[in-house]
Amino acid sequence: MALRTILEFPDPRLRTIAKPVAEVDDSIRTLVDDMFETMYEANGIGLAASQIDVHLRVVVIDLQDEEHEPLVLINPEFELLTEEIDEMQEGCLSVPGIYEVVKRPEHIRLRALDRDGNPYEMEATGLLAVCIQHECDHLNGKLFVDHLSNLKRTRIRSKLTKKSRAEVAG
């Protein structure tokens, strides 16, 4: 296993649309292992391969609570099961230190492949549903800041760009 570098907004590589995984093989399983290690090291609950500059449709999630186990989502797709919207504060490993309220559908059905390439389905609500939608957005080149107003997104971009410049200069 190896730690990977997490890309940070506004890095244009985060806008790349991920390609489907053709075959779940040892290279994909190694990627999954690296993603879990990277996510845990960064104290996250979800990570999309796009965030580590691997543009394949792979996501790992671990809410790190008693109800859910670590999840691997390869080629994930979801459908909305309700019109009801949940508001939840979201953060992102690619947008460090920023937390904003985002509105998302509260109940979804997920279809994906597991770490061994076996298909599965599950329904999700609450934080798990939000996390799945958030990570799937990454696979489509979208970030949670895209759900915010232009003004908020511009302020966040400016703040992170200044922080990055200060770290390089510092």
Describe the structure in brief:
By secondary structure, this protein is α+β, with helices and mostly antiparallel strands.
Description:
With 170 residues, this protein is an alpha+beta fold. The strands form two sheets. Strands 1-2-3-6-7 form a five-stranded antiparallel β-sheet. The protein has a two-stranded antiparallel sheet with strand order 4-5. The mean pLDDT is 94.
Comma- or semicolon-separated keywords:
170 residues, alpha+beta, five-stranded antiparallel sheet, two-stranded antiparallel ribbon, 3 helices, 7 strands
Radius of gyration: 16 Å
Helix content: 25-40%
Category by helix and strand content: alpha+beta
Strand order of the largest sheet: 1-2-3-6-7
- Helix count, DSSP H or I runs of 4 or more residues: 3
Major sheet: size, sense and barrel closure?
5 strands, antiparallel
Would you identify the regions where 5 or more consecutive residues have pLDDT less than 50? none
By DSSP, the count of extended strands is 7
